[in-house]
Amino acid sequence: MAIMFTMIVCFTMSWKPIYPTQTPAPVTITAVYDFSTFPNVSGTFTTSGALTISGTSTMDVGPNINGTRAHCVVTLVTSDGTITIHQECVFATNPPQGRWEIVSGTGAYANLKGNGPLTMPLNTEAMTGVIY
Predict the structure, then answer these.
(1) Could you count the other beta carbons within 10 Å of the beta carbon of residue 87?
(2) How far is CA 5 from the centre of its chain?
(3) pLDDT of 23-71, one tens digit each?
């Protein structure tokens, strides 16, 4: 009976995840750029929600396919580290829109992940979504 009880306890405990998962939390990232140096532009950013930081930003605009789609790399820079975001932008809508995803970070943001939709009114990148 004791052996059977021990086996039940062991099997029951093995069903729980070994590593806790992080809960996604809402975030808004707003970057404003000077497009006079297109396709490599610079500007500033602020965030709100689960992450409240600000700093400088660069965006390297990738190839624009048929004038309707581009892949961009955004780098957010703070005194605590950097966040690198990949964007897929669609210009066939008004305002242009797309998706973003955090692909890497340094310093305090080394393990940060996140993603969501974005809109691009005028010279602004408005990213909403979640971080975890």
Answers:
(1) 20
(2) 46
(3) 999 999 999 999 999 899 999 999 999 999 999 999 999 888 787 899 9
Say what the pTM is.
Answer: 0.82
Please state the length of the chain.
132
Question: Under the phi-then-psi rule, with left for phi > 0, alpha for psi from -120 to 50, and beta for the rest, what region is 50?
Answer: alpha
All residues at 6 or more sequence positions from 125 whose CB lies less than 8 Å from its CB, including other chains: 29, 30, 31, 32, 33, 59, 74, 87, 118
Q: Which domains does the chain have, with CATH numbers?
A: 22-131 (2.40.350)
Distances (CA, A) of 38 to 20, 59, 116: 43, 9, 24
Round to whole Å and give the CA distance between 29 and 43.
Answer: 13
Three-state secondary structure string covering 29-91: EEEEEEHHHCCEEEEEEEEEECCCCEEEEEEEEEEEECCCEEEEEEEEEECCEEEEEEEEEEC
Q: How far is CA 22 from CA 47, 87, 131, in A?
A: 20, 23, 9
Q: Which residue type sits at 45?
A: F
